[in-house]
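Q: what sequence does this backbone want?
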């Protein structure tokens, strides 16, 4: 039987190796709570700069900010004054009253009333400090979250490819909450602790510099012990954090794959894996919290020894006449109090650095380079005269005609009607440098044409459509929209001219009517209903419990996949975009529903330039041009009949001699 190791042996073993990187993002991204889970031990990169910036958010409300500082000074000053006031109270009133044969308590009562007033003023100031801090913290954090959300709207799609939704959500929740707690409690308590400590030390020196030398030696010893224990405690807390992340990651993985676990009778192995992760976390948590729990008892023990020695020496000094009873009583009281601000600052320092680290991650997003948009050409509504002359309409006026508003060197503007002509010329693109996804793509679509892209998964079909609306920037080549380089068009106008129906439909919390209106925010109810009818969605909508006012929640979980897709088509139909992009919009739909959706899309595509990405080749037979893409290159282009006659890649796919990977 293996010899059981002692607690100290196990502790020494766990401290022997520190292989955890304190700044490793992977350790923290899956942590959802648990003992120690709320602490963030990553070191901020710029403590001063980030703290000043956080305080800047609080400083936007200057009145509350100044009021908090003033109340904090009043509260701390009254607390120090009340403690020091005990000296004259004892020496000038209590001691003489003890020696006096006649007991007149009126003067003492008056002084006690003054002391009570000082304590009351301190309590009132502390109460209003907390209350004002809470208001200021909520106000500042609200502004911080608003700036963060606004910044996210301006970031390129590539940014979201590199950051998970959970990671970004933690900026709004965990990191912002840490900043809020820092503003609400941490900063004020930290500053109050500094002022209290400095004030207490100054008063102790004024009472007796000789006794303070003994106290200073004790404080230095306490700091040394706390620093040594804290260093090892930090190592173990990092290990605890890492094991907690592993535990939560395992739980999430098993819950996501619960059906697979049950299907393959994996329950017992899943339990065994959980027990291993859970036991590892338990052991690390026990040792981490053990070291953490002995810090303050150790400090208190040292300070108690100091208190006893000071009481003896101070007693001798008092008897010798070099110290008064009041001074001794106040000094001994200060020994008890001097560690309180140290403890307060130690506790708040952890929260403060955690909040600063979180604020840095928030500011990293806010400061991230926004999506480039240096175009000068805008999309406007116009009136078209019988002779073809285009005139820009007033704001909000709808005519059904759109034009590109192009600035001229002389300050005037040229209006070019939006027709939907799209052309890609020798386009090169790569998501990762030196790993090209598209290699010299040249493809065009004349106004009103339907262009279909087919090819294997990963061939670059969706990438082409993402480049047309500038979700990504091309490496080289040109993309022209009605003869205008898309880089010269403002992105808001470019994307407003295109409608997109994706395979994965996103619906938002709200009514069916509101989700359709999302395609055109100023659309009337009649326009939304007409769009639903053209998309063949009106029938199922009227059968819903509240029709168009039926609430949609959970991304449309109360609707079928086909119904969600029909709503997405209606949402695009209401906007009447001149160009449409349909990205495998029917790949996950049954054939019966597909026919219904196809009829809706046929109405949607009428008179528009359409790019279709299709997995089912039967849906692209009526396209004017079918473009076959493989490994980022166009291998064939032509109509359905032309490509069948060539008997190339498309022919093999259509006849089943080859399959899409």
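A:
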């Amino acid at each position: 039987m293996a010899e059981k190791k002692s607690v100290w042996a196990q502790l020494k073993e766990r401290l022997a190796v520190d292989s955890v990187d304190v700044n490793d993002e992977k350790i923290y991204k899956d942590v959802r709570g648990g003992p120690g889970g709320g602490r963030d031990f990553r070191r901020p990169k710029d403590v001063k700069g980030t703290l000043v910036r956080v305080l800047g958010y609080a400083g936007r409300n200057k009145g509350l900010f100044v009021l908090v500082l003033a109340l904090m000074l009043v509260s701390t000053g009254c607390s120090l004054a009340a403690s020091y006031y005990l000296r004259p109270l004892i020496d000038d009133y209590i001691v003489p009253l003890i020696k006096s044969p006649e007991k007149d308590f009126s003067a003492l009562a008056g002084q006690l009333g003054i002391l009570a007033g000082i304590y009351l003023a301190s309590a009132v100031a502390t109460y209003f400090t907390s209350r004002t801090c809470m208001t200021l913290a909520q106000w500042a954090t609200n502004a911080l979250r608003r700036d963060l959300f606004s910044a996210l709207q301006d970031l390129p799609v590539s940014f979201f490819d590199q950051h998970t939704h959970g990671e970004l959500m933690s900026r709004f929740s965990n990191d912002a909450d840490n900043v809020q707690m820092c503003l609400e409690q941490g900063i004020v308590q930290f500053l109050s602790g500094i002022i209290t400590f400095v004030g207490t030390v100054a008063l102790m020196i004024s009472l007796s510099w000789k006794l303070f030398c003994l106290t200073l030696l004790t404080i230095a010893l306490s700091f040394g012990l706390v620093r040594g224990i804290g260093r090892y405690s930090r190592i173990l807390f990092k290990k605890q954090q890492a094991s907690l992340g592993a535990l939560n990651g395992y739980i999430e993985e098993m819950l996501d794959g619960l059906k697979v676990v049950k299907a393959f009778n994996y329950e017992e192995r899943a339990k065994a894996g959980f027990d291993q992760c859970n036991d590892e976390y338990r052991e690390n948590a026990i040792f981490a919290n053990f070291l953490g729990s002995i810090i303050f008892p150790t400090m208190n023990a040292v300070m108690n020894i100091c208190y006893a020695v000071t009481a003896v020496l101070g007693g001798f000094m008092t008897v010798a006449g070099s110290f008064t009873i009041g001074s001794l009583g106040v000094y001994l009281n200060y020994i008890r109090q001097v560690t309180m601000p140290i403890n307060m600052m130690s506790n708040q320092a952890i929260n403060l650095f955690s909040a600063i680290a979180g604020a840095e991650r928030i500011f990293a997003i806010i400061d991230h380079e926004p999506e480039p948009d240096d175009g000068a050409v805008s999309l406007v509504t116009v009136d078209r005269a019988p002779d073809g002359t285009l005139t820009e309409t007033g704001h909000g006026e709808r005519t059904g005609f759109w034009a590109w508003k192009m600035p001229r060197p002389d300050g005037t503007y040229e209006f070019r009607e939006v027709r939907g002509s799209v052309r890609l010329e020798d386009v090169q693109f790569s998501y990762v440098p030196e790993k090209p996804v598209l290699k010299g793509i040249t493809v065009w679509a004349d106004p009103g044409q339907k262009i279909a892209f087919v090819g294997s998964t990963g061939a670059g079909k969706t990438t082409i459509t993402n480049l047309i609306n500038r979700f990504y920037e091309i490496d080289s080549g040109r993309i022209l929209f009605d003869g205008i380089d898309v880089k010269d068009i403002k992105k808001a106008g470019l994307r407003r001219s295109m409608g997109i129906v994706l395979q994965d439909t996103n619906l938002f919390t709200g009514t069916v009517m509101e989700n359709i209106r999302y395609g055109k925010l100023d659309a009337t109810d009649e326009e939304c209903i007409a769009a639903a009818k053209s998309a063949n969605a009106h029938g199922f909508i009227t059968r819903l419990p509240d029709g168009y006012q039926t609430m949609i929640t959970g991304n449309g979980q109360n609707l079928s996949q086909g119904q969600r897709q029909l709503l997405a088509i209606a949402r695009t139909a209401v906007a009447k975009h001149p160009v449409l992009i349909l990205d495998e919009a029917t790949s996950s739909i049954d054939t019966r529903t597909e026919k219904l959706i196809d009829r809706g899309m046929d109405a949607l595509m009428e008179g528009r330039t359409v790019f279709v990405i299709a997995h089912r080749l039967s849906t692209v037979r009526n396209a004017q041009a079918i473009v076959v893409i493989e490994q980022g290159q166009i291998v064939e282009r032509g109509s359905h009949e032309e490509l069948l006659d060539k008997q190339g890649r498309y022919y093999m796919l259509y006849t089943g001699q080859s399959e899409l990977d």
